[in-house]
Amino acid sequence: MTELVIVEDDPILQSEFAKEMVKQLRALDTYDMYAEWSNARILDPLILTKERKQEIPIVGDPNPIIISRINAYYNALSSLIEKKCDVMTVPLVNLTHEGFGKVLIIVGKLVVLDKALRDVHRFGFKNLEKMHQEAEKVIDNAVQLVEKYKEVAQL
After folding, report:
1. Of 14, 69, 144, 155, whose CB count within 10 A is highest?
2. Is residue 25 part of a domain?
3. Contacts of 19 (CB under 8 A, 6+ apart)
4. Contacts for 72 with CB less than 8 Å, ≥ 6 apart
């Protein structure tokens, strides 16, 4: 096992997003590999330090583990948006075998996130704080859209 870049007592691990992210990753763990793992260890592969990023080829196809992480990330965002808006939210992730695609998060008939994905074999974040900031930004924007277009979100 490589050394963790997330410290076990990082306060971000107690955030609503980090807890939801861990919950989503554990839900995708069909072989119970994460049963004895700490939250920091579960989230650690999502952090791509400069050294870790250098180990990943520039061109490559995503493997099932990376695709699971991407699904867990957008499922976590969707779940938290739903919790804040009290309206059913659906994440849609469409990827090609080459690692290109699109993600949508839909609330009713309202699209609250529309993001192009590319080079997903390099999916990750600079550090835990950046992952948390990006997630909070997406969630806040989605909640604002739902509030602004409530009628469409409730269709």
Report:
1. 69
2. yes
3. 13, 39
4. 21, 24, 25, 27, 28
Q: Nearest 5°: phi and psi at 89?
A: -125, 140
CA distance 37 to 119: 28
CA distance 34 to 68: 14
Query: What is the number of structural domains in the chain?
Result: 1
The whole-number pLDDT of residue 146 equals 97
Per-residue confidence band for 40, with pLDDT thresholds at 50, 70 and 90: very high
Global pTM exceeds 0.85: yes
Three-class DSSP category at 49: coil
- Over the stretch 46-101, which tens digit does the pLDDT of each residue have? 999 999 988 888 888 889 999 999 999 999 999 999 999 999 999 999 999 888 99
CATH number assigned to the domain comprising residue 103? 1.10.3100.20
Euclidean distance between CA atoms 115 and 95, whole angstroms: 12
Specify whether the backbone of 137 is left (phi greater than 0), alpha (psi in -120 to 50) or beta.
alpha
Predicted confidence band of residue 29 (pLDDT cuts 50, 70, 90): confident
Looking at 8-127, list the stretches that DSSP marks H as alpha helix, in order from N- to C-terminal side.
16-27, 39-43, 50-54, 64-85
